[in-house]
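Summary for the steering committee. The consortium agreed at its last meeting that each partner would contribute one worked example illustrating the joint modelling workflow. Our contribution is presented below. We chose a case with several input lines so that the handling of multiple components could be demonstrated. No manual editing was applied between input and output; the record is shown as generated.
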Amino acid sequence: MLNSLLKKLIKTASGRTRFVMAIIGMSVALLLILSAVQIQIDYDDLLYSKTNQDSIANFLVVNKILNNKTYGTATFKEEDLNKLKQQNFIEDVGILTPSRFKASIQSYSDRFPFYTDISFESVPAAFIDVNSKDWKWKEGDSFIPMIAPNMFLDIYNFQFSLSQNLPQLTQDIVKMIVFKVNINTDKGPVSFNGKIVGFSDRISSLLVPQEFNDWANQHFSNTQNAKPSRVVIRTKDPGNPALVKYLKNNGLTTDADKTRFSKYRQIVNAIVNVSWITGAVMLLFALLVFTLFIQLTIASCKEEIQLLITLGASPKQLQKFLMKQFFPSNIIIIIISLIAITALQFEAHQVLQEQNIFVNTFTSYYTFATAFFILLVLWFVNYRSIRKYIAVQDK
Amino acid sequence: MQIELKQIVPIPLKDKFSQRNSDVWNQTVLFQHGEWIKIKAPSGTGKTTFIHTLYKLRHDYSGQVFYDDQEIKNISGDALAQIRQQKISIVFQDLRLFPNLTARENIELKRVLQSPFYDAAIIDEMAAKLGVASILNQRAGLCSYGEQQRIAIIRALIQPFEWLFLDEPFSHLDHENISKASALIAEECSKRKAGFILTDLDEDAHFNYSKYLQL
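What follows is the complete predicted structure of the assembly.
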């Protein structure tokens, strides 16, 4: 009852256009700020979440740039490795150990004659993206499991087989073939059976278990303890510009494609920054207009407010009434912005899903938290300006 | 609640008042709870100034006014509103109704400003007693001054109070209406065991005053 009487006395209708403009400005500002938060979170999701974990992206094979200057010294010293391990964007460093003996593989089958000289590499098991129960070797085993790069098979299937008029091979067929692996030693060749147990995108060389490689190097090699020339690093974010910079500054190189996210990330960062700075500035102006609107309303009802106070209306009652007039529009703006963001997020989820990019279906709770925080700020600004201008009338 | 005045003199009227003998200005005066006080004063001797000072509408005076033990200069904002809602009610000389509200809305506003002392039906009862029932739904600005005066009286009586300040409350009423209004005021004050301070130009016998003062 009191409110309806106060509504008749304190007309909030004056300056309605200004009010509407402040509301629109505030809505746009909120949309910008909230989408900045949501985009940032979606992007972080893309980088770190399980569903998006790209096996290529998180492991980088790094070597020193080989050119005329570095010729013969493009190996990693102990201190180089330690320095790498100390970088906070590098989680783990694995050494790729090359085989230091002469080897060849050939097929047993006459129908599929095959012979080639070959070298192996090995890497600690933690860096391998193939799960196979056959991936093990101990001294005395005559069977050597191998992991081949996908690229080898692609080259064979789409180039070599066509030029040589050979049949194309699927991964499963290749896995069934047993090869003969020969190692040349001083005392003559030693033979093993070998089989491809998996294909990897991660490391572009023929991998054998570390145990086998170490054993064979020890027994069949003439050179001892050669320094590693390639390492594999594990990183949370190969798109981290700091990583890219570090590699460049230290004369290191990796597959450039794997650090492609670095550029995307800078673009996303720029978008997010522009979006939220614009949003923040707009919010500031919208708040200013809103405050002015409150001041105008109170000033235009100055006499009524003064008489109300004279008659015994408490400043608190009037503040409460005015808050009820002004604040709900803020809540509505926030709710509408959140609905819009949720709709956009759902749409983004649908569209990106078709491209095998998985972002959340729903708005992140960080976005909701931000919205809530902004609501608190709005409440505070409303409350303060109403209090201030009522107090002016109370004098 | 008792009201105490200590040597109050309105600053703009200081020179004028220091010449005159007054029961109020520059005196220590105590108004006990429940006293019915008549303050008589000719025009221009500061009746309205006095009522406004007492009601804390003006601050341009020397001396002190106390509500119980509290100096009113130290009461403000919500605490002052609390007193105006519960302890002190007032009929202004210039009435101060909201012209754009109806007579009933003017009264109702004062009724619901605090938790209501009376039901809304009492408005009609009081209006009937004072002969303004027919204009209750008319905009206050359109009512005659005499009607507005009675509306202002009802508005003052609809709330709880311990003190009622009446600043020439019958200036625009005829004898018959004055006796109706004073009867209602006396009834309401007795019901609340409340006191009042009434200012007027002349002697009168409208109430059974417990104290007469000359301004």
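Helices of chain B lie at 14-19, 47-54, 77-86, 103-112, 121-130, 145-157, 175-192. The radius of gyration of chain B is 17 Å.
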